[in-house]
């Protein structure tokens, strides 16, 4: 079976319109259909890995998000389905995110190790 890696570098995409990140949702759907797909969080998307985020009360002007995203739950559920969720340690550090602030099930990877990580997948998708 082919093995896929989905790279996310844009955080909170479509969270005003939706209750989840579209690529995290797509990854759940693909795994549910039997695909061996995993996730790498990098750049701004490393913020997804921070524990305890609460988007309830999210609003923009007069528009209130009544079903806010729960990215932490979505990532934990994805991992429970057997996916690996990696994050680039240097990207987290650049944003002032300490390792102890990251969900413990997420796997750190260093920028210099990305080529060997990519080599373990038949396809790498960059969103």
Describe this structure in words.
- The structure is a single chain.
- The protein is α/β, with parallel strands linked by helices.
- It has one domain: DsrEFH-like (Hypothetical Protein Ychn, Chain: A), CATH 3.40.1260.10.
- The protein has 4 helices and 7 strands; from the N terminus they run βαβββαβαβαβ.
- The strands form 2 sheets. Strands 6-5-2-1-7 form a 5-stranded parallel beta sheet. A two-stranded antiparallel ribbon has the order 3-4.
- Helix 3 links the parallel strand 5 and strand 6.
- The longest helix has 11 residues.
- The protein is globular and about 45 Å long.
- About 20% of the residues are buried.
- The mean pLDDT is about 90.
SSE layout and pairing:
Elements: E1 3-8, H1 22-32, E2 36-41, E3 59-60, E4 63-64, H2 71-80, E5 85-88, H3 89-94, E6 107-109, H4 114-118, E7 123-126
Parallel strand pairs: 1-2, 1-7, 2-5, 5-6
Antiparallel strand pairs: 3-4
Helix pairs in contact: 1-2
Key features of this structure:
127 residues; Hypothetical Protein Ychn, Chain: A; two-stranded antiparallel ribbon; 4 helices; 7 strands; 25% helix; globular
Quick structural summary:
This protein is α/β, with parallel strands linked by helices and 127 residues long.
Give the domain tally. Answer: 1
SSE-based structural type: alpha/beta
| Helix segment tally | 4
List the strand order in the largest sheet.
6-5-2-1-7
Tally of DSSP β-strands? 7
Mean pLDDT across residues = 90
How much helix is in the residues? Answer: 25-40%
Q: Indicate the CATH topology.
A: Hypothetical Protein Ychn, Chain: A
Low-confidence runs: none
Tell me the β content: 15-25%
CATH architecture: 3-Layer(aba) Sandwich
The largest pleated sheet is described as: 5 strands, parallel
CATH class bucket? Alpha Beta
Distance between the termini: 22 Å
Shape: globular
What's the alpha carbon Rg, rounded to whole Å? 15 Å
């Amino acid at each position: 079976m082919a093995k896929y890696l989905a790279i996310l570098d844009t955080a909170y995409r479509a969270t005003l319109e939706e209750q989840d990140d579209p690529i995290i949702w797509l990854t759940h759907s693909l795994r549910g259909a039997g695909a061996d797909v995993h996730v790498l969080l990098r750049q701004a998307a490393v913020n997804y890995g921070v524990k305890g985020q609460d988007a309830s009360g999210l609003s923009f002007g007069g528009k209130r998000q009544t079903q806010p995203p729960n990215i932490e739950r979505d990532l934990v559920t994805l991992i429970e389905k057997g996916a690996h969720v990696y994050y680039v340690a240097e990207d987290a550090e650049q944003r002032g995110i300490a390792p102890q602030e990251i969900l413990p099930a997420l796997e750190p990877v260093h920028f210099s190790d990305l080529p060997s990580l990519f080599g373990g997948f038949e396809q790498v998708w960059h969103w």
